[in-house]
Structure formats: structure tokens, C-alpha cells
Amino acid sequence: MRGIKDITVIAIFSSILFAQEQLLTFLPNVQLTVFLLVLYSKVFGFTRTSVIIIIHVLLDNLLMGSFNVMYVPFMLIGWWIIPLVTCTLLKKVDNSLILAGAGIVFAFIYSWCFIIPNVLFLKVSWISYFYADILWEVILALSSFITILWLYKPCVKLLNKLKLSYIHEH
Asked: Is 131 exposed, middle or buried (0-12, 13-18, 19+ CB in 10 A)?
């Protein structure tokens, strides 16, 4: 990371990630989070996206009053899988359909990360939790697929253009 520019970029895009999730809370599991993390990973790389994830998780848990050592690590792991896979296995992939398919997988993996703490904390069987949560997982997967498919190309083009114009000006 390179100082003020990175701090500004991280602050702005952390705010966007956090704000969209809060604005869409009235629609259960319909959010742009998976899409934005895929986009950020492609444009800003693993390190910046990881910092954005840490800020997002801290803010989300502070606002929602859910700061719990049983959940926060699993939330971090669930979101970190996106930049980890996007910046390694999918590094050269720029096809919206493939990334949208990956978005489905990311949504399910993120959701499944919560099976462990819920089994331990709520003392429910993993299969009961899984069955109770599957509809919400499908909704998150569908919203992730659709948003990546529709929004990835124009947004990555815009962010790369902004990034290039900043570099040429300075």
C-alpha cells in the first residue's frame, strides 16, 4: 500500500460496501456484497480488498451489535475467501458469466461458514441449521449471480478508467 491514496481508496470503497449492505437490509440476503468484493479484488487486489473486508466486518458488527468471537472470525473467513480465490485461481478470468458462477459458490461458502458457530453457539444440529438457512443461501447466491452478471463489466471498466486517469494526472 502506498499512503494517502490507498487510505482514501480504502475508505471510500469500504463506505460503499458498508452503506449498500445497510440500505438493503430490508431485503433479506439481497445485497451487492459478493459483487463488490469480486470487483474490488479484480481492481484493487488482495491486500486492499482484505483491509476493506476488515473495516466492513468491524463496522457491520459494531452497528448490528453482534460483536461475538464466535461469529466475527467466521464472517472474516467467509468474506476473505472471495479475494483469495479471485486474486489467485480467477486472476486471469474477466468473463462476467464465469465470475457470476463463482459468485454463487462464494455466496454458499460464506453462508456455510456460519454453520460451525451456530452449531456451537445455538446448540442446533448442523443439518437443521442447513435446512433452515438454505432458502436464504439461495437468495444470496441468486443476487450475487445477477449483480455480477449485470454490473461487473461496466463497473470494472469505470474503476479502471478512474484508476488510469488518476495515475496519468499524478
From this structure: exposed
